[in-house]
Amino acid sequence: MIADNLKSVTQGIARCCEKTRRHPGDVKLICVTKEANIKEIEEVLALKVKDIGENRVQDALIKYRAIGDRAIWHLVGHLQTNKVKDAVKIFSLIHSIDSIRLAKEIDKEAEKINKVQDILVEVNTSGEESKFGITPNDIGAFFKEISLYPNINILGLMTIAPEVNAQDMARPSFHKLREIGEQLQKLKLAACGLQLSMGMSNDFEVAIEEGSTMVRIGRAIFKND
Ligand SMILES: *Cc1c(COP(=O)(O)O)cnc(C)c1O
Asked: What domain range is 124 assigned to?
């Protein structure tokens, strides 16, 4: 089941890349395992998936104990400052930096273990109050400030589109994230090659059309039908 699901997801990604003349290697699949158990994670690793996404540090620690560095670990969910110490130990990339306070704490804890922590800045592209993320207006100042922190390395931006019935309704969020990225590069606040983490099971095709470089997919891989 997982093997079939995974195949249709990777084929879907490849089809979208072809349609938009992008190279399939330019879009990384992050398999989100927050609802998967260790056996299921083992199964996707055996199918050559390397990048695993979790949204809670506590759950990820348990899974990390079983799987370790056979996977590349991504934190895709919200991070509380009191979990940063554990997070910097296991995650290669933290997708959800949404405050100066959090960035400072990561910088501090990463320094203690001699690590430069790769991060993405989460942007609230939908304006929904229930969503985390920096608002588009504040993003320039935010980048300026956190780029001074020596033990964090900003790789790009992340967003979560609103839950909508039709994929196309998620498009404006993805489009906005790409525009923000281009603006940051133009202002020399970000290097070129900025990563865009956007697109989930329900909307990854549109996200790829809008320039996503990392899709975070869970349900489409672990569903049982
Ligand atoms: C759960 C989750 C995903 C994956 O969502 P699916 O709909 O299961 O593909 C992606 N990103 C974040 C931040 C998540 O919490």
From this structure: 2-222
The residue whose CA is least distant from atom 10 of ligand 1 is 216
| Residue 76 alpha carbon to ligand 1 centre in Å | 8
**Non-local CB neighbours of 84 within 8 Å, separated by 6+ positions:** 102, 105, 106, 109
Q: Per the structure, how many domains does the chain have?
A: 1
Answer for the pair 124, 159: CB distance below 8 angstroms, yes or no.
yes
Q: Which residues line ligand 1 (CB under 6 A)?
A: 32, 34, 55, 76-77, 160, 200-202, 216-220
Q: How far does Cα 39 stand from its chain's mean position? A: 23
State the CATH number of the domain containing residue 210: 3.20.20.10
In the reported structure, the alpha carbon of residue 216 is separated from the centroid of ligand 1 by a whole-number distance in angstroms of: 6
Ligand 1 atom index nearest CA of 204: 9
Per residue of the chain (225 residues), give pLDDT as tens. 999 999 999 999 999 999 999 998 999 999 999 999 999 999 999 999 999 999 999 999 999 999 999 999 999 999 999 999 999 999 999 999 999 999 999 999 999 999 999 999 999 999 999 999 999 999 999 999 999 999 999 999 999 999 888 888 999 999 999 999 999 999 988 888 899 999 999 999 999 999 999 999 999 999 987
In this structure, are residues 39 and 30 in contact, taking their beta carbons and an 8 Å threshold? Answer: no
pTM of the model: 0.97
d(CA 102, CA 88) in angstroms, rounded, equals 12
Name the residue at shortest CA distance from atom 12 of ligand 1. 76
* 138 alpha carbon – ligand 1 mean position (Å): 25
